[in-house]
Amino acid sequence: MALKVLSALDSAKTQYYHFKAIVVAGMGLFTDAYDLFCIPPIMKLLGRIYYSHRPRYEVPASVTSAMLGTALLGTVTGQLVFGHLGDRVGRRRVYGLSLLLMVISSIWCGFSMGTSRTCVLLSLGFFRFMLGVGIGGDYPLSATIMSEFANRKKRGAFIAAVFSMQGFGILVSSTVTMVVCAVFDKATNASPGDETPEVADLAWRLILMAGAVPAGLTYYWRMMMPETARYTALVERNVEQAAKDMQKVLSVSLSQIAELQEEEQQEASQTNIPPPSNNYPLLSKEFLRRHGRDLFACATAWFLVDIVFYSSNLFQSQIYHRYMPHQNKLNAFQEAFHVAKLQAIIAICSTIPGYYATVYFIDRIGRVKIQMMGFLFMGLCLLAIGIPTSCTGATTPT
């Protein structure tokens, strides 16, 4: 019965509520990107504050890797935990829980404290891990929520539009960092050779705490929306409530749903063949037979693209160091400003246009071709970036 009822959702016309779902689900990924990619310029400030005795104020590679990796480790943990809970207790509750954790963790990051450099960095790393757990819960549920609200005709474009908010999250994190650094730079009027002002310790905290704002707004908006009809009908098996939720937010009448329900009952009475059972454990033989190949292929493709996506975004200042002003000519705020500006330029010129090209073409040429084109262009771009380095013998500073 539930599958026929949900065919009304698949055939629903594109309307206002679909775009509202894009914004609400997309704001989750927007916040994820803000929190994950605001850290590279912050590492420059931390180097100036806590490693002023080292050449070029460089944070040790082990500390940098740990600070960048803790959030990603938390993300993996959150995906496994909240993904499982999303199927057990519902998308709405778990999505709200992950957003609350992101709000609290963003604020905690700003209050990282201690009597020594080690204590500050350890507390920041712990809070970044907790932030990553919240991001891990939000990341898959945002796409799931959109896919379950979307109609069949525009589902690909809707989900791609949700993921496109990552590009804007990177852009806004860079913009906030540039604004904060510009304000502090003007207020302190520090010269490149001067000692790093104490207020620099406040600047990076404000940038991190600003991530609580979009997470809090997204939590409020999501709590105003009902549970997805697909979850209510298929998992909770409450078809009547799913129908009421659909009528409340979409232009789908109860009479239309009732007609589909009657058609299903008539079809069931005319045949003695029982419908295939969808009740089988995760990673069981039946699960692997039905979904194993697709799951493995999708997970592998995502794994490979994330290696490139996250490494190239988190280490942009090292990759493009030759195009940035020398550190001796910049104070702490100016150096962080230039790193953030580089992130913003790349987001505007490549990341955001790439996302919206996918939104436009995904339902026209198909998912597989879009993905193949994406991998091809990523490979060509990485090759183009790497060739000048190998030809000139330039090396990344350590």
TrEMBL record:
Entry-linked SUPFAM superfamilies: MFS general substrate transporter
Compartmental location: Membrane
Record membrane topology: Multi-pass membrane protein
Under the heading Pfam families, the entry gives: Sugar_tr
Q: List the catalytic activities from the record.
A: phosphate(in) + H(+)(in) = phosphate(out) + H(+)(out)
Q: Which domain of life is it from?
A: Eukaryota
**CDD domains linked to this entry:** MFS_PhT
GO terms under cellular component:
membrane
Which Gene3D superfamilies does the entry mention?
MFS general substrate transporter like domains
Q: Which GO terms describe its molecular function?
A: transmembrane transporter activity
Say where the protein is mainly found. membrane
Name the keywords, alphabetized: Membrane, Transmembrane, Transmembrane helix, Transport
Q: Which residues form the Major facilitator superfamily (MFS) profile domain?
A: 21-398
Regions that span the bilayer: 21-43, 63-82, 94-114, 120-137, 158-182, 202-221, 295-315, 342-362, 374-395
Give the family this protein belongs to, as stated in its UniProt record: Belongs to the major facilitator superfamily. Phosphate:H(+) symporter (TC 2.A.1.9) family.
Q: In its UniProt entry, what is this protein called?
A: Inorganic phosphate transporter 1-9
User: What's the source species' lineage?
Assistant: Eukaryota, Viridiplantae, Streptophyta, Embryophyta, Tracheophyta
